[in-house]
Design a protein that fits this description.
One of its GO terms (molecular function) is ubiquitin-protein transferase activity. The protein is 60% helix and 0% strand. By secondary structure, the protein is an all-alpha fold.
Length: 106
């Protein structure tokens, strides 16, 4: 059985890394602690998942990393917007095209 406080600590560290765009820490947490970090977690303040945040920021590296580790490209935020909606809204062509490709690949 997984220690809930340890999992919560990993999750908190992961969300802080996302907020600070700390790719190194995010990669370490995702790679070295599989199953202890939920990449599809919603930020209670913003209603966004890390993938939504990456799309809003136009951060292709973050988007690719999150999808590689299981981020759901179909998941809507609390306003009903998908990552694709946000990528189109911000006009970041690299992010938009990558999300479309991931949707096509299923």
């Amino acid at each position: 059985m997984m220690d809930k406080s340890a999992t919560t600590d990993y999750q908190k560290r992961f969300l802080e890394a996302v907020q600070n765009c700390d790719m190194s820490s995010m990669t370490e947490l995702l790679k070295d602690r599989p199953g202890k970090v939920n990449v599809n977690v919603f930020d209670k303040r913003t209603g966004q998942t890390p993938l939504h945040q990456g799309c809003l920021e136009g951060n292709i590296e973050l988007v690719q990393l999150l999808i590689r580790y299981g981020a759901d490209v179909r998941l809507a935020n609390r306003d009903g917007w998908s990552p694709l909606h946000l990528a189109c809204y911000t006009g970041n062509e690299k992010v938009y095209k990558y999300i479309v490709r991931m949707l096509q690949e299923g």
